[in-house]
Design brief:
11 strands, globular, nine-stranded mixed beta sheet, alpha/beta, Rossmann fold, two-stranded antiparallel ribbon
Length: 242
């Protein structure tokens, strides 16, 4: 067992009990928004690639009942925390400690991905857990997307969150395998450039891509926008369309 100093926190206004590392990588808005953007139905089989301490799949299961979850996490301490958090929230989840691209999983209907964002050549963080969570290895996104395609059932879905200034890289990884794609920009405030994007894709479905109306996360005064508050606190879906 790997011992980490942790804090006792909550997500979705207390609906999710969440232990996470006291220092280093700590869950913020991204995993909650990712879970809110996924088109999930009760009973779906879901894989969470790079699940960390479990924030994304825990928020997903709080919104949609009876999900069968497989989480994969490369850091042993975070994988142990994810399993503990699943038990604390009475979520049935198989947590695998290992590199995502080296694992084989049973077919699933949905893959959720919150991958490391920073380039492999960027400066390393002195906190090794934070560094693993934030700094990508060369070709990692492409390998994760390839495994997602391999792991999905026909017409299965992928949902991921990534840096907006690397959207071209995301689309290049998706397009050979996922013809139906949707992009949701996430703006820090209205009138500012997007810092994040949610991208959804569907296997074996050929249809035109879509760019949805984006979400401004904060009001001009810096507080959460009303829409963001409903997503982050009340658990409502993000930009779901029929």
């Amino acid at each position: 067992m790997t011992l980490l100093a942790t804090t006792e926190d909550t997500l979705l206004s207390g609906r999710v009990a969440f232990r996470q590392p006291a220092t280093g990588y700590r869950a913020a808005l991204d995993p909650v928004l990712l879970a809110a953007a996924a088109r999930l139905n009760p009973g779906d089989r879901v894989a969470d690639f790079g699940c960390g301490a479990g924030a994304t799949f825990l928020c997903a299961t709080a919104r949609v009942p009876d999900l069968a979850v497989t989480g994969i996490e490369g850091d042993e301490g975070l994988a142990e925390l994810a399993a503990e958090n699943a038990r604390a929230n009475r979520v049935e989840a198989e947590i695998i400690w290992g590199r995502v691209e080296e694992e084989a999983i049973d077919p699933v209907g949905h893959v959720l991905i919150n991958p490391p964002f920073h380039d492999a050549a960027s400066d390393a963080s002195p906190d090794t857990v934070k560094d693993k969570a934030n700094r990508s290895r060369e070709g990692l996104l492409e390998r994760w997307v390839a495994l997602a395609h391999k792991s999905l059932i026909p017409r299965g879905r992928i949902t991921l969150i990534y840096r907006a200034d690397r959207l071209d890289r995301v689309m290049a990884a998706l397009m050979p395998r996922f013809q139906e794609t949707e992009v949701i920009p996430l703006w820090p405030k209205a009138g500012t450039a997007a810092k994040r994007v949610i991208v959804r894709g569907r296997r074996d479905v050929a249809s035109p891509g879509q760019i949805h109306p984006g979400l401004a996360l904060h009001d001009p005064d810096g507080g959460l926008s009303a829409t963001a508050r409903r997503i982050l606190e009340d658990g409502v879906p993000l930009a779901q369309t029929p």
